[in-house]
Specification:
The complex is a heterodimer of chains A (about 270) and B (about 280).
Chain A (H helix, E strand, L loop, with lengths): L16 H23 L11 H14 L1 H33 L1 H15 L7 H8 L3 H25 L3 H9 L4 H38 L5 H10 L3 H29 L9
Chain B lengths: L16 H14 L9 E10 L2 E11 L4 E5 L6 H8 L7 E6 L8 E4 L11 H7 L10 H11 L15 H13 L5 E5 L7 H18 L2 E6 L2 H7 L2 E6 L2 E7 L11 H16 L6
Parallel strand pairs in B: 3-7, 3-8, 5-6, 6-7
Antiparallel strand pairs in B: 1-2, 1-4, 8-9
The chains are: A mainly alpha (about 270), B alpha/beta (about 280).
Chain lengths: ~270, ~280
């Protein structure tokens, strides 16, 4: 999980509406082929419902208010779990990057815990928290903790020592050195951690909600499976995909906003 | 770049008034009265890193406002000497004393790498050089003035990555100058630049040294550069001062002039006559 250098992109279609649509051509084409395959009976509706059926299921679910309710519950769990786990990971990453004492005290322990897949904790978590909200929040927080912790730590450890020396020469105190040199330098790496964490956040939430929940998108999918409502199952999977894309776009926008000094993040 | 590419006439025959003024300034500096630079005295300076003794007893007095070049082979200890003067290392033994009590802002260093903050605009990078006075209300104006001094005022709002190597080094110079230092230490500041950029940077260095009359200490491996810029060239070999050569050639100096070349040849012979084995 090191800093992934992005190659400068060559843009041929620039700024136009058509250019903005290019990334969506493939998903639209796939949906179109899917619709045709279902309509011609090539794919049985019991294996995969047509996109139109999925849309219909979405509409019904929206009208009953069930869909909004489940999306909101899942979103809330993701966000709160992310804030808790990410916050602790960020704080510990900073502490261990800046203080040797803190690093020696906690890093070995954290590396041991890191090697336990956090989803392996599910049986234990159910025993501890039942299928309460706390169980889901705990799992999400545990999942997002490590990518944020590791990448924050990495970012701070790889600050150019020459820049730190420069800051000291020019009379920067500890606080100013952190604010002006260390933190901005670690930011690209922190963003890498953030995006890894967003992926893990959804993954954890899906698993937790399908195994132990009484609400949320994962629960909705499991319920639908019980009643063989395959269109609702597909719907919840698609919503996960959209939410994931949304989270990724948000983090990219934040990157572009804060890393405009970085040649790799130029528009 | 315009200022730094000024053409100096080779003789004083048709010298315009500005040149006469410059020569008069040099004369005054020699008298050490008008200089606002700090003089420094080094006595018995030693420094070792583990078993490796880098400096083995350096004694050196640099009068206020002098331009001293320190040359030597790589690994001879010249950079260590500079870092000791700049306070970046602590001496193993011996003392370095400045004429008067020096504040942190009085001594500035310029490195081979520009060491600009990539996430700060050019003007903010220069403001860093103000040290404790960064927060004052005139910080912005002072940074702009320093940028104008190196001819980069129009780049003030740029990110460092768009600048060329020479421009970055000029921003670093502006950052070093903005606090009006009384000693400016250069650690091979032009080492990474191409030949033409080097020459225009050398002229810029000479000009700002004229204008601001600080004490300049330049570490370089380029003897031609040392002879062209400095009042005095100190040759360091094996952690000791091997030669101390005064460059009594009137300024402005013309690149490629015979007397400069002759002096360069003498110093190079000194350097090469050492031990050729590890060249």
């Amino acid at each position: 999980m090191s800093v992934v250098e992005r190659l400068p992109r060559v843009r041929t279609v620039r700024g136009s509406v058509i250019g903005g649509l290019v990334p969506w051509l493939l998903p639209i084409a796939i949906i179109a082929i899917w619709q045709v395959a279902c309509a011609t009976g090539y794919v049985s509706a019991r294996v995969l419902p047509a996109p139109s059926d999925v849309l219909l299921a979405a509409w019904k679910s929206l009208r009953s208010g069930e869909l909004q309710q489940n999306i909101w519950v899942s979103f809330w769990r993701a966000a709160v779990g992310f804030l808790i786990g990410g916050g602790i990971g960020f704080a510990l990453g900073l502490a261990n990057g800046l203080s040797q004492l803190s690093d020696r005290l906690t890093d070995t322990t954290l590396q041991m815990i890191r090697n336990v897949p956090h989803l392996a904790m599910i049986p234990l978590v159910i025993l501890w928290f039942g299928i309460d909200e706390a169980a889901k929040l705990f799992l999400v927080a545990l999942g997002v903790f490590f990518p944020i912790y590791l990448n924050t730590l990495h970012g701070i450890r790889t600050v150019d020592p020459q820049l730190i020396e420069m800051g000291r020469i020019y009379g920067m105190g500890r606080g100013e050195l952190f604010r002006r040199v260390i933190f901005p330098s670690a930011l690209p790496s922190i963003f890498v951690g953030l995006r890894f964490a967003l992926g893990i956040m959804w993954l954890t939430l899906i698993v937790a909600e399908t195994i132990a929940a009484s609400s949320g998108l994962g629960y909705m999918a499991m319920q639908a499976r019980e009643f063989m409502l395959i269109d609702v199952v597909v719907l919840s999977i698609l919503i996960y995909a959209l939410l994931g894309k949304l989270a990724d776009s948000a983090s990219r926008a934040l990157e572009r906003l804060t890393l405009s000094w970085h040649p790799a993040f130029q528009k | 770049m315009q200022q730094s590419l000024r053409v100096f006439p080779s003789t004083a025959e048709f010298a315009p008034p500005s040149v006469l003024v410059e020569q008069a300034r040099i004369a005054r500096r020699k008298a050490e009265s008008a200089s606002r630079g700090l003089g420094l005295t080094i006595r018995g300076l030693r420094k070792a890193f583990g078993d490796n003794e880098v400096l083995r007893g350096i004694d050196l007095h640099i009068p206020a406002g002098q331009f001293v070049a320190i040359v030597g082979r790589s690994g001879c200890g010249k950079s260590t000497l500079l870092r000791l003067i700049a306070g970046l290392e602590t001496p193993g033994d011996g003392t370095i004393s400045f004429g008067e009590s020096a504040r942190a802002e009085d001594i500035r260093v310029m490195f081979q790498e520009p060491r600009l903050l990539p996430w700060a605009r050019v003007l903010d990078n220069v403001e860093v050089g103000l040290g404790r006075n960064r927060g004052l209300s005139d910080a912005n104006a002072r940074a702009e003035a320093a940028l104008a001094e190196v001819g980069l005022r129009d780049k003030r709002a740029q990110w460092p990555y768009v600048l060329s190597g020479g421009q970055k080094q000029r921003v670093a110079l502006a950052r070093a100058l903005v606090s009006n230092p009384r000693v400016l230490a250069f650690d091979e500041p032009l080492g990474a630049l191409d030949a033409l950029t080097r020459i225009s940077m050398q002229r810029l260095l000479e000009r700002v040294w004229h204008d601001q009359s600080f004490t300049a200490i330049l570490v370089t491996h380029d003897v031609a550069e040392a002879v062209a810029l400095a009042d005095r060239v100190v040759v360091i070999e094996d952690g000791r001062i091997a030669h101390d050569v005064a460059v009594d050639i009137a300024r402005p100096r013309r690149r490629g002039a015979a007397d400069l070349a002759a002096l360069e040849g003498t110093i190079l012979r000194h350097l090469l006559s050492g031990n050729d084995a590890d060249a």
